[in-house]
């Protein structure tokens, strides 16, 4: 069995210090096999915010995998934004823009969907490119069905159940067809500051094989969107997957069950 802690949208520069300390204590108590951080470690991409995020990561007692979010690209210094958008992220957080964690039971691949500019007025929207999709195929295709395969991005592939018009990561359909073909089981993301889980088939009719999704709320930021600070706990045990949420109640993070799935005939179904 493998236990993943999925945290997102930390936003150092706009954090609640009490929540940060409680989160670190909760993660220590949980004892995950891997902590996944799905982007937006900083609020504006300033150096002091990256230094604070780095200090936070250094206190983890478990292995971790991290990808950047759109807020990790400088938002004020336009020269830095366009000339070297991820220089600070790579200096302070992680050099590898497609990090991979792999063992006998799970393979977790991070892909950077943040872009300094896009073909739309809102540059916060993300995109996945053909090279990243091809890389995911090269990682996952050689692996057997007994390895649970996870892709981590900042931007979502599945909208909230009550907001189907939500903007998704660019080229989502193309990526999902590849993920379907190479056996990806789970997609982890953030960006929306809303927590939910589901199956991509509920929104992407062309996808016939189930791919589970877990979206994380903001773990530590004061930029709440009608949800408390929270993070996901995912337990992978062979043919079964359990989703839970650790929710901040003002004093502690407390567990709330979310859902369970079992693999039957190659598909994930509610258990």
TrEMBL record:
GO terms for molecular function: hydrolase activity; metal ion binding. CDD domains: MPP_1 (cd07400). Belongs to the cyclic nucleotide phosphodiesterase class-III family. This is Metallophosphoesterase. Residues 3-194 form the Calcineurin-like phosphoesterase domain. The keyword Calcium does not apply. It comes from the Bacteria. InterPro entries: Calcineurin-like_PHP, CNP_phosphodiesterase-III, Metallo-depent_PP-like. Keywords: Hydrolase, Iron, Metal-binding. It comes from Skermanella aerolata. The keyword Hydrolase applies.
